[in-house]
Specification:
The protein has 296 residues and is α/β, with parallel strands linked by helices. It is 38% helix and 21% strand. The chain binds adenosine-5'-triphosphate.
Length: 296
């Protein structure tokens, strides 16, 4: 049995500027509520792309459609030209990793163990090898631990490798989530509100970390409410409002677009849904709430 602990994914390699993620016409409905409507978005290799929008705009739902947590009602998502499988572990194996808005670490495992869990899609050790703990298993385990330590070094947590995850301060838990996502050796990293709850220094450090990730050849798509962070960081920003993509462009274009300001201030913009549509959405939302999954 062999173990692949290198950085090779299953998707073909891309050159800088090639499209890594290509989402077309993605629509997600929950009963009568359309949370995401006909959204196109692409991310190129070497890019950091931001996804912003007011609360409830559909950002996390869209992420869930990209990562196999939801199967879009309509539309298609391709990663490096291949249609994504409708299962989150297969999407991770294909090369897309993510973090969550609400931290999802294994609280009672060590920092190192959390990163090792993230490596499972890149190791091929079989059941018997693991049970018998033969030389193949030990070699694979040593290689995985070495890579996990490298990643902890990269995010600045190597000295805390043996600490329990739950004892880390909040900002470090977010870094650990990123290290765990990187452990699957992704070509695209999706970050859902990576600076939520951070102080300005931690936010600045996260910005540097995301640049460093991009410099390693990993494309990044990031949801964030901190506009300073987004506009400093991103090559391109897409704005979702009420499930639809309102504007997309570089930071200056998006910041200068009055429809974006209006959307954040709650003022109606041209082509905004009318009162009837809003009432329809609210009614559907009220119906859908009891069954709402706890994915955030
Ligand atoms: N599983 C679900 N079932 C029913 N409705 C859902 C579900 N998930 C999300 N929604 C609804 O879809 C809409 C978009 O929610 P979503 O969480 O994607 O927005 P968001 O832009 O990520 O918001 P925030 O910035 O507050 O995190 C909301 O009206 C939400 O209530």
């Amino acid at each position: 049995m062999t173990t692949d602990t290198t950085t090779q994914g299953t998707a073909p390699a891309t050159a800088p500027g090639d499209t890594v993620l290509d989402a077309r016409g993605v629509t997600m409905r929950f009963g009568g509520l359309t949370a995401v409507r006909n959204v196109d978005l692409h991310v190129n290799s070497g890019e950091i792309v931001g996804l912003i929008g007011p609360n409830g705009a559909g950002k996390t739902t869209f992420f869930n459609c990209l990562t196999g947590l939801y199967i879009p009602t309509e539309g298609e998502v391709r990663y490096k030209g291949q249609v994504l499988p409708p299962k989150s572990f297969k999407v991770t194996a294909a090369g897309i990793a993510r973090t969550f808005q609400n931290i999802r670490l294994f609280a009672n495992m060590t920092v190192l163990e959390n990163v090792l869990v993230g490596r499972h899609t890149r190791t091929k050790e079989g059941l018997w090898s693991a049970l018998l703990r033969g030389p193949g298993f030990h070699k694979a385990e040593a290689a995985s631990r070495a890579r996990a330590m490298e990643l902890l070094e990269f995010v600045g947590l190597a000295e805390k490798a043996e600490h329990l995850a739950r004892n880390l301060p909040y900002g470090e838990q977010r870094k650990l989530e990123i290290a765990r996502a990187l452990a699957s050796e992704p070509g695209l990293l999706l970050l859902d509100e990576p600076t939520a709850g951070m102080n300005p220094q931690e936010t600045r450090a996260t910005e540097e970390l995301v640049f460093a990730i991009r410099d390693q050849g990993i494309a990044v798509l990031v949801i964030e409410h901190d506009m300073r962070f987004i506009f400093n960081l991103c090559d391109r920003v897409a704005v979702l409002v009420q499930g639809e993509k309102l504007v997309e462009g570089d930071s200056a274009t998006v910041q200068g677009d009055e429809r974006v300001v209006a959307a954040y201030l709650g003022e109606p913009f041209e082509d905004a849904p009318g009162d009837e549509e809003v009432a329809e959405v609210e009614a559907a939302e009220a119906q859908a709430t009891p069954g709402k999954e706890n994915d955030r």
